[in-house]
């Protein structure tokens, strides 16, 4: 099968090692893994038994609403609350689509310079990882702590724990998401949770996890290309050692990390070490993400999240917080300008 860019799309679920680039994992249900990397941070604070229960629940795709811009399923909640959620999501999606434009960054000298710098630092070409599709590369030497790109948000979803989760997008993305349900997406990111210490764009209407999803067929704009960043490794063995080997291999190759930056639900990608000209940007999406893929592919039983794995997850959480704090300090002027312009936006 050939995608819109002329690339071979991997359809064989058993060819796990080749399934690294999200846009080429079209047949895999990634939500069974708690979404790529970000939600893994919360696992540090739950027991192994709870984690197994969470993964088991999320593996049941029937528990998730296939993407559509329609009201929620019937639930115990009153219809006015459901309508309020839908309106809030729709307005938030519209706002993000205004943000993901060159015009938005041109509204402030600080943001304009930031966008130019990001675009000048990165380029898209064939990944260095076999059969991984496209990847993001450094066009010049880049220092640690540098924001290189942003994660696009073409759809937003909410799980308040009380009703069926819901995702919304703009009309021109409906066709893509109708055939690529968010419940089966490999691009999902949880954008807001207590660890991030920022107010959700849906607050105070809704409390719960906010997710973003990507339509990879949309035209790329400026620096909104973080979804092209690959993981440097995968979990290939459904064992404790297999997961630990993944963390070692992925951590060794990782040179950037996706972080919440500025207002919800914006996610930026920042370097975690010096990156030389020509190197590919690689991140870690987490052992639980790849375990979920492995469970879907082979139909195996989940493993216990032993203390050694918990320690790796905790280490990842610490790295995230450290990168968040560093970026907040280094890009304080740009973040202030971003929030100011973001708050001016109104639904069209």
Could you characterize the architecture of this molecule?
The two termini are 38 Å apart. The chain has helices at residues 48-59, 79-99, 102-106, 109-121, 174-179, 240-253, 287-298, 307-330, 332-344; strands at residues 122-126, 134-138, 147-150, 155-159, 166-169, 189-192, 209-213, 230-231, 256-260, 267-271, 282-283. The chain is built from nine helices and eleven strands. With 348 residues, the protein is an alpha+beta fold. The chain has a single domain (16-344), classed as Beta Complex (Beta-clip-like), CATH 2.170.270.10. A hairpin with a 6-residue loop joins strand 4 and strand 5. It has a four-stranded antiparallel sheet, covered by helices on one side. The protein has a three-stranded antiparallel sheet with strand order 3-10-9. It has a two-stranded antiparallel sheet with strand order 1-2. The chain crosses the membrane at residues 37-58. This is SET domain-containing protein. Keywords: Membrane, Transmembrane, Transmembrane helix. Residues 120-286 form the SET domain.
Compact overview of the structure:
Pfam families: SET (PF00856). With 348 residues, the chain is an alpha+beta fold.
What's the layout of helices and strands?
Blueprint: H1 48-59, H2 79-99, H3 102-106, H4 109-121, E1 122-126, E2 134-138, E3 147-150, E4 155-159, E5 166-169, H5 174-179, E6 189-192, E7 209-213, E8 230-231, H6 240-253, E9 256-260, E10 267-271, E11 282-283, H7 287-298, H8 307-330, H9 332-344
Transmembrane segments: 37-58
Protein name: SET domain-containing protein
Keywords: Membrane, Transmembrane, Transmembrane helix
